[in-house]
Design a protein that fits this description.
The protein is of the alpha+beta class. It has a single domain (44-169), classed as Roll (Mannose-Binding Protein A, Chain A), CATH 3.10.100. It contains three helices and eight strands. The longest helix has 33 residues, at 7-39.
Length: 170
Amino acid sequence: MATKMTGAAAVHFLWIFILLTIIQVQGQKSRYDNERNEKIADFRGFVHVNGTKYFIDTTPTHRDDAQAECISRDMNLISFQTEQKYDDAVQWLYDNGHEYDWMWSGALKNENSSTWIWEPIGEEISYFRWAPDEPTVNNDTIRTCISFSFWSLGWDDDNCLEYSLGYICE
C-alpha cells in the first residue's frame, strides 16, 4: 500500500536530497582539485613542441642559474624571434597546468644600456610582446631580464637578480 507524504515530510525529503547532492558535488570538486594539484606539481624534463625540443623546469631558479642549467645541456634560455614561438611556449604551459608559472627567457638589458638582446645569441631584440603596463623597470643601472607566463598576456621586465622563476631551454 502506497502512502502519501505530507507537505512537511516532502520538504524535509527535498532538503535531505539537496544536502546529499551538495556533498556529492563537493566530493567531486575535491577529487578534481587533487588531480589538478598533482598535475601542476613542478615539472622538469624534455618536451617537443611543434617539432622543437625544449627542456622545461618550473622549479623556481635564479635567472643566471637557469642559463647555466641550459648551457649544461648544450642549450640556452628560450629566445622569441617570432610570435609563434612565444605562443607555442605559453600554450604548452597552459595545456600542462602551468599557466600561472613565471618563466625566464633569454632576453636581457645589461646595466647602463637601453638595448634589449637575446643574450644566448647576442642578437638585438626587434620584436617585443610586452604585457599590459609593461615594461616597468626604469632603472638602467641594473641588469633587467624578461619573464613571462600564460596569464601575463606578454612579457614582463624584472631585475635579473631579484626573482626565482622557472625556465625554458632550447
